[in-house]
Design goal:
Elements: H1 9-24, H2 27-33, H3 39-51, H4 57-63, H5 66-69, H6 77-90, H7 99-113, H8 120-130, H9 134-141, H10 162-177, H11 180-183
């Protein structure tokens, strides 16, 4: 029996591209601190390959934690968040809700890197929303609201609280209330 947080493989492939886009925007924050450490970049490339049907779900499930471990190779909070954004993006092959994990990690990374600019997180979220196409919005609308279902990535765990929770709730509020004509880009 599928989880209420499960999308079809076709929908996961759609949201994977968007998650990779979100993570890639902050990848430089990680690479400035660890220029020879390729795990996050590789994770984003694999996420794109999965989105294009070049990699299968089973193989990516086995590799999904590799990019997240890269966070241990850096010290600055922005670089750690950037590595985690890449790890969340690569996890979309396993569970679609990870796309909603990549976005807040990326926004947090951007905000930490520009702590003197209080609008950075909000601007990053706006960029993320503007770069969702109609298919991504439709797919993500199928997921339950954050914290409503007790199991999975959108349950009551880490993503439901603090900056992550507020970002995901903002994204879900915008995509839940959008109309089809607004989705066309």
């Amino acid at each position: 029996m599928p989880s209420p947080q499960s999308l079809s493989e076709a929908d996961r492939r759609l949201v994977a591209t968007w998650a990779a886009d979100c993570a890639e925007r902050v990848l430089g924050l990680f690479e400035m601190e660890a220029p020879t450490h390729g795990r996050p970049r590789d994770a984003i490339a694999r996420t794109r390959a999965f989105a294009q049907g070049e990699l299968d779900t089973a193989g990516e499930i086995r590799r999904r934690f590799v990019a997240g471990r890269a966070a241990q190779a850096v010290n600055s909070p922005s670089a750690v968040a950037a590595a985690r954004a890449a790890g969340q993006a690569s996890g979309v092959a396993h569970m679609d809700a990870h796309a909603l994990g990549a976005a807040p990690h990326a926004a947090k990374a951007a905000g930490l890197a520009a702590a003197d600019q209080p609008t950075t997180v909000s601007e990053e979220i706006s960029w993320q929303l503007e770069h969702m196409n109609a298919g991504v919005r439709a797919a993500l609308r199928q997921l339950p609201p954050l914290g409503e279902n007790s199991v999975g990535s959108l349950g009551s765990g880490l993503l439901a609280w603090g900056i992550f929770g507020s970002i995901i709730r903002r994204i879900q509020a915008v995509i839940g209330s959008s109309s089809p004509e607004k989705d066309v880009r």
